[in-house]
Amino acid sequence: MKAGEYKSTCSYCGVGCGIIVSKMPDGKVTVRGDREHPVNQGKLCSKGLNLHYVVNNQDDRLLVPQMRLGKGHPLKTVEWPEAIARVATVFSSLIQKFGPDSVAFYVSGQCLTEEYYVASKLAKGFWGTNNIDTNSRLCMSSAVVGYKMQLGEDAVPASYEDIDLADCFFITGANPAWCHPILFRRIEARKNANPDVKIVVADPRRTQSCELADLHLQLKPGTDVYLNNAIARVLLENGYADWDFIRHHTNGIEEMQAEVMATSVEEAAEICGLEADDIRLAAKYIGEAKGFISMWAMGLNQSVIGVKKNLSLINLSLITGKIGKPGNGPFSLTGQPNAMGGREVGGMCNLLPAHRNLDNEKHRREVAEFWNVAEVPAKPGYSATEMIDALESGQLKAVWVICTNPMVSLPNSHKVERALKNAKFVVVQDISKNSDTVPFADVVFPAAGWLEKEGTMTNSERRITYLSQVVKAPGEALPDFEIMCRVARKMGYSGFNFKNAQEVFDEYKQLTLGTNISIGELSYNHLREKGSVQWPFRNGRSTARLFEDKKFYTPTQKANLFAVEPTNDSEKPSDDYPFILTTGRIRDQWHTMTRTGKVKRLQQHIDKPFLEIHPTDAEKLGIENDDVVTIKNRMGEVNAAAKVSETVRPGVVFLPMHWGKVLAGNHARTNNLTFDRVDPKSKEPDFKYSTVQIEKYAKP
Ligand code: SF4
């Protein structure tokens, strides 16, 4: 690298592409893909290529701490000590008066690992509550539960290098061509190099990813378990199962086999809206492949049966023994850049650092001793949607929101609005004033953004990368960990005298010693000089693939197969609300657009919200392309331009999830319509299945 160049990692999706940042004499930066980085070998997608615009354009930044004198008063600029003291005083008095469970953190998969760790330590060790949850709850929590139940640990078994060795990809509930583009290019390269490689995509929409597929299974929303069970049945019936692996390395085959045999392939096909022969063909591709990778994202996870979908999918890798070998494995695609790092340090309401479990007394004691506190409470905290319920009911009094925009991203937006209005005290810590959540804040903390602070992140393949500080944060903005440490010290807690992020990392890594995710030997220097590593990192060695010894992290060291009942509790369409609404991302925008929404080039792809609707449905409703339509249900309304298209099935409509009130008005917010029902185990919301009515927009 030349002078003035720094290594970093893209701060958008969980692929985790390496970036070289060049700093110009005027302080501005440019970016290019890092050719030496094993993830992307120099490539970047449209979002990554335009990252410098976000750093160079400071118009939208929060620059100074602000505070209201009381509810209804305007935000006014204050000095840091005053803002810190106010938050420390209010949180202390609420904890004293109403107990520790009256306060909460709501954080983000875009926080760095060190920031997550400090938040986790402050809440669980010092406030005395497990009320810390994250927008990763909306993203990967169903996959996490699936991995833990089946493999004994929240551990993605495979690596991106396995993509180069696989012969069959089953991409289900994901559109990597748009949402994980650099990873998709790797799949594309594999297919181009070997046309015998088979790609099966299961998705109710015909997305860009389907263009590469040998087979698109355009199933009805919510029927994934029927599909996965039917594939399992064909695999078992047609000699594709690895019985030696099943007998020696799994539990539960009898129950699982009985369940999948209870429904014929024809019955499953009918329920899924597919051809039975297509299900058989998908199973044949999977069964015949030497290397089989299943890939999934929000289409499976964001569901009231998200865990069941995960279990039925991972069953396919287990009954074929296609796990822990080159070119094989179940592979969840993380939505955010550091959702995995957040889980590593216990930044969720049911987790403890280094993948310890909250319901394990020994684990709680280990962490409490390490933090030098009396105890870590056993009671799980509020998950993301439970926090909103508790704020609305008044049980939860205060929430400190870091690096996320729940007013746009959480389901049932009108309820979120009521909850934030009802809260006694809201702290918003962010980089952007262009967030729908800032107006609800009693105190606003300006935070340093990407390239303005150092730290680490972990991508979808367990790869930990170091991010350099390249530029100074604008105005008075501070790194997130520093803001939390200042409040912690003001509250009188010891253990928050970290001078820099490296000291936080060095403390956290001690907690990983002896665990399955050990990185005890890892240092910032190693990451800076030798590059990224995949955990566990022991004896100087990174781990590309887990379970090569066929020993799983369960008490029996065997993986667990599950009999997964295909029932689905999502609300069914009715005469009043006959359409199923599914939501998702578009190619060039990220989450609630607080960063990508500022980049003109990224607006050129799609510049306004739209509703995808099938031509048959559009015709029945007298709707033409570009007509403005109103989509409504019991919870709210959204207006959007109709995009009449066969990409969706009849009876199914699609809205992108990005636009909020600040950018496009109150009636553009997709989550006005999404139900806040959650999976009972993972607590992940049902974003992919709400029922709605559609009509032509009529001016009020
Ligand atoms: Fe960034 Fe993801 Fe694009 Fe890579 S694929 S450049 S990590 S958004």
TrEMBL record:
Coiled coil: none
Domain of life from the UniProt record: Bacteria
Keywords: 4Fe-4S, Electron transport, FAD, Flavoprotein, Iron, Iron-sulfur, Metal-binding, Molybdenum, Nitrate assimilation, Oxidoreductase, Periplasm, Signal, Transport
Tagged with keyword 4Fe-4S: yes
Residues annotated as signal peptide: none
A cellular component annotation (GO) from this entry: membrane
Cofactor field: FAD; Mo-bis(molybdopterin guanine dinucleotide); [4Fe-4S] cluster
EC number of the protein: 1.9.6.1
Catalytic activity field: 2 Fe(II)-[cytochrome] + nitrate + 2 H(+) = 2 Fe(III)-[cytochrome] + nitrite + H2O
Molecular function in Gene Ontology: 4 iron, 4 sulfur cluster binding; metal ion binding; molybdopterin cofactor binding; nitrate reductase (cytochrome) activity
Enzyme class: oxidoreductase
Domain 4Fe-4S Mo/W bis-MGD-type: 3-59
Single GO BP term: nitrate assimilation
Functional description taken from the UniProt entry: Catalytic subunit of the periplasmic nitrate reductase complex NapAB. Receives electrons from NapB and catalyzes the reduction of nitrate to nitrite.
Family, as annotated: Belongs to the prokaryotic molybdopterin-containing oxidoreductase family. NasA/NapA/NarB subfamily.
Protein name, entry field: nitrate reductase (cytochrome)
Organism of provenance: Mangrovibacterium diazotrophicum
